[in-house]
Protein: Geranyltranstransferase
Amino acid sequence: MNPKMNNLQLEINQLLSESIPNSALNTNLEESMLYSLNAGGKRIRPVVLLLTLEMLSGDYEKGISSAIGLEMIHTYSLIHDDLPPMDNDDYRRGKPTNHKVYGEWKAILSGDALLTKAFELISNDQALTDLTKIKLIQRLSNASGHLGMVGGQTLDMQSEGTPVDLETLEQIHNAKTGALLKFAVMAAVDIANPSSDVANNLELYSEHLGLMFQIKDDLLDIYGDETKLGKKVGSDLANDKSTYVSLLGKEGAEEKLAYHTQAAYDCLANLPDNYDTTQLDAIIKLFNDRES
Structure:
């Protein structure tokens, strides 16, 4: 990450650490929520949201609640993905997974609480108009639910042990991985309200980012460095999942990654000259080059 991204990451980490106040219910649910929120990660989705908004409006502050809520939903999905009925992972980012520390039932409830907290944050944001809040809540609900991330995860789980074609694989990942990345970009569009041409190019950009992210994930799951990933490689192979690598081979997956990388750059090149795309270009490079 470049210095701008690093600074945003630090700001997001601080805000996340302050986002779950203790309740009067005398449970350690908040501790469990914060355990996973504070477990690290690049904060890619909130960073993308804030950088896109800064490019569009010159100020990212109005995107803070959406960015923090988005990371809460991503974190809840990881907690649930790690559970025994799904990926059954013992480690996430080099630390024991939530259910290994707090037990399965509390991990489930922590995820549930993070999901609902995200919408509370957006609805309470006094810097946004009511209409903008409605747009954001609608978009985030769609991206998170049965038509987005949850639907994609369902299709992914149903496809384990069954070969799928490339079209189905892209359908899975456009929903499972791409939907929240698309929200990151389009939430900034909802807040800044640029022209329809700008919005359309950014939407296409976000779709290519989502596929880039997943193709790279598939490559790293086979060829990545476990010490950098913070988890074991080969989980997709062990779970008999179809991936870009299993369908296309290493070279074919890398060619697909290169195609979506160039297409994402082309979308930004189509924006008017008054938009400084430097940071969004850097996001493409980060996705293409990442090792974890």
